[in-house]
Amino acid sequence: MSRYLQIFQQSIDGPEAFWAEQAKRIPWYTPPQTILSYDDQQHARWFSDGEMNLCYAALDYHVDNGRGEQAAIFWDSPAAQAKKTISYRELRDKVAHFAGALTQLGVTKGDRVVIYMPMIPEALVAMYACARLGAIHSVVFGGFAPHELAARIEDAEPKVVVAASCGIELGKVLPYKPMVDQAIELSSHKPDACVVYQREAHRAELRVDEHDWEALVAKAPFAECVPVKGTDPLYILYTSGTTGKPKGVMRDTGGYAVALAYSMQAIYAMEPGEVFFTASDVGWVVGHSYIVYAPLLAGCTSVVYEGKPVKTPDAGSFWRLIEEYRVKSFFTAPTAFRAIKKEDPDAKLLQNYDISSLKHLYVAGERLDPPTFHWLDDLLDVPVIDHWWQTETGWPIAANLPGIETVPTKAGSATFPVPGFNVQVLNRDGEQAKPMEQGSVVIKQPMPPGCLTGVWHDERRFHSAYMAAYPGYYLTGDGGYFDEQGYLFIMGRTDDVINVAGHRLSTGEMEEVVGAHPAVAECAVIGIHDDLKGQLPIGLVILKDGFEGDEATLEAELIARVREHIGPIACFKQVLVVDRLPKTRSGKILRKLLRTIADGKEFGIPSTIDDPTSLADVHAAMRERSVGAADKATPLD
Ligand code: COA
Ligand code: AMP
């Protein structure tokens, strides 16, 4: 039996013994005696009686054990034309003083703090300061509009909002403070305080009741770490669901810390003192786990990059960063490499850099499409590892695991389930699918440590979204299959969530915004294939009878609405007016069928369809605009 299989089997047959052993990777104040327990709803809870503090484990512990002068962060910002190295000791001190500042603003254990910041070290400082106090942070990605920020403030009810004065995107300076003001205005919950970190590129006007970060920290005491239980919440991270309301995914502290520490060794093969670089954003789960927490828990150095893969200044940025910081493992989304490939198809810029420090390349956020896999595989001498995960799981569900055993990769596969994740594929009858048979990908309970523990303030949604479909299993929302050798292939979402440039977006939410326009009778938003971003949303719209305006103007209005409500990150730039949309006899729009048309695939007309001519109508409209290309990845029908 292979080493991987042996370890995987141990984790499934004896989860308590397995995770009790992994828990030793973390410096607990009180080591847990209860490893696995279940709440009233029979959801797994890990390390419930252990006591720890994640900030202590990631910072103070290393300072106390000889890593004080080692770099914790290499911050590199072509956007701000600045670089900074911050040692573990410096970072610990910054965090402790900002935690002191938060304490003076009344933040205590269990309070929520919303953080709206770009990729600057202060974003990490704010997150760790919350962890230090046992407060719960909720980071909101900067590409979301005020309306989205407001929805999160409304739901999380933060005591304090922490923001930066601006973000910087490909030469554009984006003032954040007006967006924060608008969001607080829109929300019925009003935070007690707002703290702003002033950046040189744009200083925000502050009201007298608002706080300047530097001024606040200058007179703040050094706060000590507050011990928390393993099951106490560390953060809420909102993610797109099938409805307009984002889901507040909740993460515990102890289980998350243990899972991340385990992953740094088993999946990323990292040793203390080595350099880890994840090119993502602190606003996404990838950023939370592998920019902020995991590298420092493991005693590594994390590269924090404020820039794009291309045009900052060119498509060689990643290679430059790998050389400059001697990066051992690098992680980003496939779309970033598609952007690089488009600009520099023969990777000529790579010749300018020595990337010999690189030992593994990881991608996630969307499926690594075979052409991009082959491009990377031919280019680099290191394993190219696609691995699959979600905001909900917090760490990878399936991967190649060089820290245990590197197995040959297969293009298009996320390889094998990670120890702890009992992944199964269920077919339409709810039975285990045979090899090569596509179905719904689920995880048999108990989920391993690190996975979501609930949806903030919404136990019913937690159950209905994830647990109700197949009792005893967690529903991932992804479709896929195992091949004969047990390789897992994740082929796409089975719900109305789409993936645009590695970002997860809800088409339902876009439909709510488009459908609210007075001229729109009905609409459907679907994802269509895009060579660079994987998918792009397109709105199919039926106008109300008697509409007399100009269609092009209306389309522009709808596009502006989505940008204003959800944000530029929605990439909603295409609207198509159609006469009819295909529906079932019960009146539901057939979105999966629409996706098939958009992808340019052959389709048969299902017997349940109400009006077959509506299909031809949409098809013709799509053809006319030449949208939709044949997708290489076959979504489930
Ligand atoms: N703050 C404000 N606006 C932001 C933003 C932020 N943090 N991030 C993106 N935006 C804006 C962009 O400026 C763009 O606006 P525009 O419509 O005015 O041009 C819009 O949101 C769409 O952004 P994006 O989809 O990222 O497109 P892009 O063309 O700027 O970049 C890629 C495309 C592929 C280079 C980029 O998405 C990328 O590097 N992705 C891979 C890494 C990643 O983010 N992974 C996430 C999970 S691992
Ligand atoms: P997010 O929660 O934003 O990280 O998005 C999670 C979703 O992205 C998953 O449910 C998948 O649909 C998709 N995804 C992430 N990584 C992969 C991968 N390696 N292969 C296929 N799909 C992926």
TrEMBL record:
AMP-binding enzyme C-terminal domain sequence ranges: 509-588
SUPFAM superfamilies the record matches: Acetyl-CoA synthetase-like
Any one Pfam family match given in the protein's UniProt record, by short name: AMP-binding_C
The AMP-dependent synthetase/ligase domain, residue ranges: 70-446
Domain Acetyl-coenzyme A synthetase N-terminal span(s) in chain numbering: 4-58
Cited InterPro entries: ACAS_N, AMP-bd_C, AMP-bd_C_sf, AMP-binding_CS, AMP-dep_synth/lig_dom, ANL_N_sf
PANTHER family for the chain: ACYL-COA SYNTHETASE, ACYL-COA SYNTHETASE SHORT-CHAIN FAMILY MEMBER 3, MITOCHONDRIAL
Family label: Belongs to the ATP-dependent AMP-binding enzyme family.
Listed name of the protein: Propionyl-CoA synthetase
Source species of the chain: Vreelandella neptunia
Lineage start: Bacteria, Pseudomonadati, Pseudomonadota, Gammaproteobacteria, Oceanospirillales
